Structures are given as C-alpha cells and as structure tokens.
C-alpha cells in the first residue's frame, strides 16, 4: 500500500512541552499544539481505504521531503509517522504487543523539496 501525506514532516521529540495537571499540579510532558494539529491533519489526509488496523508484521518505508536541507533525525521522523499511522487507524497499536507490528523501516530516507514538502509512505508485509 502506498500513499502520500502532503504536509511538512514533523517530529514529536522536538515539539514537547512540560505542562501542569490542573487538578494535581503535577508536571507532565505533552505534545505541542503544532504537533497535535499535524497529527489531526494527517488523520484527515490518509485515505479511508488504508485505515485497516493492520496487525501483522510490516515494513514501513517512508521518504520524507523536507523544505530545507537541514539535518534531521530520521528515527524521530519514523517514530512520529508510526504514531500517526496508529492514531489514523492504519496500524494497530503495538505498544503492548510482542512481536512488534512495524519490524523495519528499510529504505526510509530524507530528501529536500522546497516547493512540496511531504511524506511518501509505503507499507509492505514483512517477508514479501
């Protein structure tokens, strides 16, 4: 399955904020409003036919097209993408499962496209 998310790729790690719980006063780490908006937009942009709750081992290959030739951590980009895919219903949440659903990110890379930043996603069954 292949699809494109026509938004500038965003990482979760660089957009965290420390907030306080209003009831207890305890601090907690929350994603920024910008990341949460990115996640919401991705949910809307991923076609419904791909929202299958995949629960078998897969390889998620992603090509991230960034608007600038800056250094980015592809591991953080992959992590954010996997969380978006779970939230959008493409993948089943595997945080408590063993073995994991995403078993590889072979072929993922970062490129530059100043005019059209995006993420091209390809999901294949592991072993194909």
UniProtKB/TrEMBL annotation:
Highest taxon listed in the record's lineage: Bacteria
Signal peptide: none
GO biological process, one term: DNA repair
Pfam families linked to this entry: RusA
Annotated InterPro entries: Endonuclease_RusA-like, RusA-like_sf
One MF annotation (Gene Ontology) recorded for this entry: magnesium ion binding
Name of the protein in its database record: RusA family crossover junction endodeoxyribonuclease
